[in-house]
Design goal:
The complex is a heterodimer of chains A (about 110) and B (about 140). Chain A is an alpha/beta fold and about 110 residues long. Chain A has one helix at about 15-30, and strands at about 10, 35-40, 45-50, 55-60, 60-70, 75-80, 85, 100-105, 105-110. The longest helix of chain A has 17 residues, at about 15-30. Chain B has helices at about 10-25, 30-40, 40-50, and strands at about 85, 90-105, 110-120, 120-130, 135-140. The chains are: A alpha/beta (about 110), B alpha+beta (about 140).
Chain lengths: ~110, ~140
C-alpha cells in the first residue's frame, strides 16, 4: 500500500465543505483525539437499521472518516486549504497523476485521469 | 447535583470526598478533569455543550420551557446531538468503530472489514488490502 509517487490531489468546493463539516462533528465527538480526515475506498458495505433490523447492501463507495494521526501508516497526506487530508489509495490508483474529489448528491466521486 | 449523575451522599466519607472535590475546584482544577477521573463521560459531554449564552425555549411553550435550544425552537438534549451536525440543509451523522477484521486466503488478496455503530444503525464496510480503519466515519 506504500505510495511514493507524487499525485496531484484536489478537492471541489462541495467536497471540501463536507470534509470540513464532518471534521467538526468528529472533533466534537472525540475532543481528546488528534484526528485527521481520511478518504477511504470501500468495496462493499452493509447497513443494519437499528429500529427495524432491515439489512441494506451498500457500495462500492468513496467516503470520509477520521483517523488518529498515530494510526497513520502509509497514507498519502495532502493539504486542503490548511487542513491535512490522508488518502488510503487502492492499488488501481497508485499510478494516477491527478485526482480530484467532488461531492454530488450525497456521495463522493472521483474525477481525473 | 442531581443533573450531574453523581450518586447520593450515604456516609460521612461521601460528604468528605465532596468537600475535597469542592476544594479542588476552588483551587482551579478544571471540572472536565475531575469528571474524567470519575469516569463520568456522559456528564462531560453535557458540560462540553454548556453555553450560558445559548437561547432557551421561551416560557409558555409547555414541558420544554427553559430547555437549551439552537434558535429558540424545541431541541433534543440527548447525547445523539454530539454525533450529528446540520448545516446548509443536510445532516452529517457519524459512526464509531467497534470492530476490525482482517482476512486472507492462500493466493488471494487480503481484505479488511471495519464495523461501525451509529445512532441510526450498524455498518460493516469491507475493502481489499490491510488497512487501518478510521475511528469515526460519516454515515451516508
Amino acid at each position: 500500500m506504500r505510495n511514493d509517487k507524487k499525485i496531484d490531489v484536489s478537492f471541489s468546493a462541495s467536497a471540501e465543505d463536507v470534509i470540513r463539516r464532518f471534521m467538526k462533528v468528529a472533533e466534537r465527538t472525540m475532543p481528546s483525539a488528534n484526528l485527521v480526515p481520511v478518504i477511504t475506498w470501500w468495496v462493499e458495505g452493509k447497513f443494519t437499521d437499528k429500529v427495524t433490523g432491515k439489512v441494506t447492501k451498500l457500495g462500492p463507495s468513496i467516503d470520509v472518516g477520521a483517523i488518529d494521526t498515530k494510526k497513520l501508516t502509509s497514507e498519502l497526506v495532502v493539504p486542503m486549504g490548511g487542513l491535512k487530508v490522508a488518502l488510503q489509495l487502492p492499488d488501481e490508483l497508485q499510478s494516477a497523476d491527478r485526482l480530484t474529489f467532488d461531492y454530488l448528491d450525497g456521495s463522493f466521486i472521483l474525477v481525473g485521469n | 447535583m442531581a443533573f450531574t449523575g453523581l450518586p447520593k451522599l450515604e456516609s460521612a466519607n461521601d460528604a468528605y470526598r465532596l468537600y475535597l472535590a469542592g476544594a479542588l475546584l476552588d483551587d482551579g482544577l478544571p471540572p472536565r478533569e475531575m469528571l474524567a477521573g470519575l469516569g463520568l463521560d456522559r456528564t462531560m459531554r453535557q458540560l462540553d455543550k454548556y453555553d450560558p449564552d445559548q437561547p432557551r425555549v421561551p416560557a409558555g411553550s409547555g414541558r420544554e420551557c427553559g430547555q437549551w435550544t439552537k434558535d429558540g425552537s424545541l431541541a433534543s438534549t440527548s447525547g445523539d446531538e454530539d454525533r450529528k451536525v446540520q448545516l446548509a440543509g443536510d445532516v452529517i451523522n457519524v459512526g464509531f468503530l467497534v470492530g476490525i477484521a482482517h482476512g486472507s486466503s492462500p493466493g488471494e488478496i487480503p481484505w479488511t472489514t471495519c464495523v461501525y455503530e451509529s445512532a441510526i444503525g450498524d455498518f460493516e464496510w469491507s475493502r481489499l488490502g490491510e488497512w487501518e480503519c478510521p475511528g469515526i466515519r460519516r454515515v451516508p
